[in-house]
Amino acid sequence: xxxxxxKLSKSFVRSxxxxxxxxxxxxxFVVNTEDxxxxxxxxxxxxxxxxxxxxxxxxxxxxxxxxxxxPQGKVALKKGDNGNGWTHSLSVRVLYYGVEEREELNKLIxxxxxxxxxxxxDGGVNGELTYSVxxxxxxxAIQSSxxxxxxxxxxxxxxxxxxxxEEEALDDRVLVHTDLSGTENFLTSNLAS
Length: 193
Hints:
mainly beta
């Protein structure tokens, strides 16, 4: 098929002044995947960078607040017979599992899909890599959630991931609304109260 045989066109070069860091900020922002206006959202660099994430009317951004080593994000290559893709996943811990939190999780187990905006501890050389988007195309669904009074300090673990057969075409996407402060303004101005 013409146009599907991609070739390498740029070198991977080390920046001597840059030291990579692992981990995410303790707050993850999530959006209902169906609330993203993909026709109005603007991207660059072959879709690897979202320069203007547009939400549908009345859509909001929600928070998962974590602690310690959670939340955790992951992107993994999935080789397939009909082409390769990426599986995106997010592990969070619900620190307070009250009645309203239970109601929200129950909504998500009934085919709810989220797209996550994660703030990485590694922001790149000039903050240009601070925010990444997981599950932009297909969203991520709850894959597991198991509570035990004896495990996880009594908090509720919840794991989201790309569904089998719905792999993303791209790795995680970088989110930059003009600059770092523009991205943070977008998040706070759309944050549910």
